[in-house]
Amino acid sequence: MGWQKKVLRVDLTAGTCTAEPLNMEWADRYLGQRGLATKYFVEEVDPRVDPLSPENKLIFATGPLTGTPASTGARYSVITKGALTGAIACSNSGGYFGAELKFAGWDMIIFEGRAEQPVYLLVIDDEARLLPAGELWGKGTWETEKALHERHQEPQLRISSIGRAGENLVRYACVVNDLHRAAGRSGVGAVMGSKNLKAIAVHGTKGTQVADPERFFQVVGEKKRILAENAVTGQGLPTYGTQVLMNIINELGALPTRNARDVQFESADKVSGEAMHEPRGSEGKPNLVRNQACFGCTIACGRIARIDKQHYTVINKPEYWGASGGLEYENAWSMGPDCGVDDLDAMTYANFICNEHGIDPISFGATLAAAMELYEIGAITDEQTGGLPLRFGSAEALTTMVEAVANGEGFGKDLGLGSKLLCEKYGHPDLSMSVKGQEFPAYDPRGIQGMGLTYATSNRGACHLRSYTVSSEVLGIPEKTDPHTTEGKPALVKAFQDVTAAVDSSGLCLFSTFAWSLEDIQPQIDAACEGDWSLDKLMEMGERIWNLERRFNLAAGIDGSQDRLPKRLVSEPAPTGPAKGMVNRLDEMLPEYYSLRGWTPEGVPTPETLERLEL
Amino acid sequence: MKHSVTLKLYASLMEHLPAHAQGHAVTLEVEEGTTPVQLLEGMGVPMAQVHLVLVNGYFVPPSQRHRPLTAGDVLAVWPAVAGG
After folding, report:
1. Rounded to an integer, what distance in angstroms lies between the CA atom of residue A57 and that of residue A79?
2. How sure is the predictor about A538, in pLDDT bands with cuts at 50, 70 and 90?
3. Structural element, H or E, at residue A220
């Protein structure tokens, strides 16, 4: 158990919903969520498919611990071929939607084809129906939630939807659930939009079951105590959220600033987690209202924030005066330092729009930063921007352009391409701070060497959540390594990648690993699920998942030649700070990484590796 | 002999900054030979809450927090925090 052992297959072309038994042979080898859904995906989808064509599929998948009493068991993932990257995409979200899907009796939903007209999927326990969504098309995720609650009169209905960005096929559109949690990266929302699928609304009454309830509750209780007593998960994250990193990473000289031209931002403290606590001059209240937990989470790192009513962004827009999902570190960085912007409320407004209209704020901010550099060197002019100066530091550019992207208007259409296509279009491909088409997040690999290898080898394009070596290189979790050395980093990155793939397949949140090791997670999985879930099995499974994703990318035409970093990071030394004079030394790490992976010097898994992993 | 160093305290440790601090930072005149531990204890910072210690942006492990600061050093300190 742990699993509901049931898959919902939705053929959007035919308009049918069909229940299937979960493939338990695969579940025994891939567990759930990221691993198991990727297995389904690669078995069913031609890797060369156009991500926005009906032949692409879109899977919403839970893990065996999703919806159980295990702390942080809120997670679900959206798996597809990414619209931004053309690579395997797996975007992970919290909130309450994943648990509700599980309560309705489903482990995953597989969408295939394309609806002729906009539809949404309604799931109430065993009953699943496609319903017309014409009236919802054009609405944001917030209005969509409200309208579906009013229509179905079910307060427990949990909704995952796209906003205008997904409808407009913005390459980095995301899927938003519970108003401000998101399967954020790689453009999974654009794939959903291409299928004319507006939303999934689900309510379940079945609960979840585990294989050994007595052992499960005992071990879950023990592990919750670890989270509560750990200073990071018990105090640091609930109080300051991820945004506390802003000053740390700036002090380290690893905060990509103004499209990574700089590595330190002179106003970092103005847009930090601490700044969100400070009362604002105009009304004496801080930006941060409170923290918030996802389903079953005892950490509660989420930020709920409010924009000052007198701020220019909302002074005539009372609909944005309420408290909603606030800035986390990555989006605060992308829409703050990376654009040179230091207006916390303007950034919060842009974040609200990203949530409302389903935009990945990391890729949006980083794409705007690239556009600002293109503007400053004259490659983009007022002719393209409609007269709006896209200068670094302009909060007005940020808040105007986020709306333009959502609505697919004016220069927003170009920004909606993502930085890679944008910079190619305007003749400066090297100014895109991306790998495999996806913009890298808030850690400059010149000052944190392991993150360079992390970005270069991430199967979904540049990403911090595939191997968060910042944990070791900066924070000393589980043990401290030197951020400036490349020695030992290939093994560190591989270990983080494999463990993360296992955690992402369980239904638990990666943030639990600031306190838990895989040794803490393993007994929870083992008690919840049938079969023998040893530590060795989970580690091998993580490695198997990584290679499965890699093989899909290779077949899609994304080979080792794309395990590269933006030229700036390997050729322009960091101008200030502790990493001054350094570039990322990817070439020192990549060959050893390939070797540790059991791949050829070209980055292809050898037959022996595939045989060992039973692939 | 005294020299000046800059102390930066973040997150929950900010409450130990003196009133005249500018944001997170305060410049202090300290005796030569003063170590990070001595400086922090002198400011009333509970060492049990001290987790991440950087001097001029470089990590200082617990075993080296008794080494003297030099003139112009920037000591930045956080409690146990994380993100991502």
Report:
1. 8
2. very high
3. helix A213-229
| Mutation choice for B interface testing from A233, A243, A244 by most B CBs within 10 A | A244
Please tell me the distance in Å from A245's CA to the nearest CA on chain B: 6
CA atoms within 13 A on the CB side of A465: 24
Q: What is the model's pLDDT at position A83?
A: 98
CA distance A504 to B14: 35
**CATH no. for A6-203:** 3.60.9.10
In a domain, residue B83? The reply is no
CB contact under 8 A, B11 and A237: no
Under the banding of pLDDT at 50, 70 and 90, the label for residue A282 is confident
**Chain-chain contact of A231 with B51 (C-beta, under 8 angstroms):** yes
- At residue A283, the pLDDT reads 81
Identify the CATH number of the domain in which residue B13 sits. 3.10.20.30
Yes or no: say if A89 and A188 are a contact pair by the CB < 8 Å rule. yes
For residue range A136-163, list pLDDT tens digits in order: 999 999 999 999 999 999 999 999 999 9
In angstroms, the CA A448 to CA A440 distance is 13
Q: Give the residue numbers spanning the domain of B28.
A: 2-78
How high does pLDDT run on average in chain A? Answer: 97
Share of chain A above pLDDT 70, in %: 100
DSSP-assigned beta bridge partners for residue A9 = A18, A110
The domain limits of chain A are: 6-203, 257-432, 448-612
Confidence at A574, pLDDT banded by 50, 70, 90 = very high
What whole-number distance in Å separates Cα of residue A317 and Cα of residue A313? Answer: 8
For chain B, say whether A320 makes contact (Cβ under 8 Å). no
pLDDT computed for residue A411 by the predictor? 98
Residues facing residue A77 across a β-bridge = A61, A92
- For residues A226 and A228, give the distance between their C-alpha atoms in angstroms, rounded to a whole number: 5
Given 3-state DSSP classes, what are the helix, strand and coil percentages for chain B, each rounded to the nearest 5? 25, 30, 45
Interface contact A464-B51, CB threshold 8 A:
no
pLDDT band at B83 (very low <50, low <70, confident <90, very high): confident
The answer for B 35-74 residues in CB contact with A (under 8 A) is 49, 51-52, 54, 56-59, 61
